[in-house]
Amino acid sequence: MSKDGRSSELPARIIPLATLPAPSRGFEPVVQRIPASWLHKRETLTKCFAQEKALVLLSPNEGGILYLSASHLSVAPEDEAVQAAFLSFRGNDILALSVRKEALLAQLPVLSGLPPVTIQTRSGPGHFLFVTCNLITQDMLLSSPLQTQSRILQHLTNLLLTTVLDALDLDLSTEGRRRHRQKHIRAYIESQLHEPDLTPQVIAKACGISTRALYLLFDGEPGAVSGWILSRRLERIHKDLQSLDFASETIAEIALKHGFRNAAHFSRRFRQKFGLSPREARPKRLTG
Length: 288
Known about the structure:
Low-confidence stretches: 6-24
Shape: elongated
Number of strands: 5
Mean pLDDT: 81
Largest sheet: 5 strands, antiparallel
Distance between the termini: 105 Å
Strand order of the largest sheet: 1-4-2-3-5
Structural class: alpha+beta
Helix content: 40-55%
Order of helices and strands: EHEEHEHEHHHHHHHHH
Oligomer: single chain
Radius of gyration: 26 Å
């Protein structure tokens, strides 16, 4: 008996089911082992995306890569060193974690328009993710009740989100997400400045966002999206006009290379930005 007269042999505490973490909804995670040879067979991996699933491929030491779609397979991630090590993997089978892309993007919309995300698996949350997936493929949950299995999968999806956030070094604030998405969309635009038909509609479609969302990311820029594109093109042309490397190219050729098809329009915009004509901006030593 305790001092207050109650029995010390109390029944086990009963926790109401409603207070437990809710099971995962929408992610539908599936973990399996695939042969390492699949990494070099794009047509085989493409089948994994047939049901609108995102795919995370994990190796024990070389790292992992998150792909959002089949088209992602041909896009280089930011950390190409991880991709190179991953594709040269000659060990045992690779672990493949698939989740519904819609559910993943609902939690991390910043992933839209980004290249494949590389993951470190030797340490940090990526290692925990690999170990958890590895245990699941070893059928460690088969003897557990369905409710327990469901909750473990909930933890798995939470771990995936944590791993991706860690890989992106992402600031979770609204402004942080905005800056991060803006950074990658601007990088995409920079890679396409040579295309004359680079419009906000084309950019939004390529980056998987609405045109309105794209304009919001450039809110505060003079001329919004189109103004930023124009400014970057003119800055590149001004740099090329100053460079000896392009001394053999005409002004018209340089302008065309950076997306200007109308010479008069280009000259007018160039003068507005720099206060002098393209010809005046070219050093005399390069015009002789």
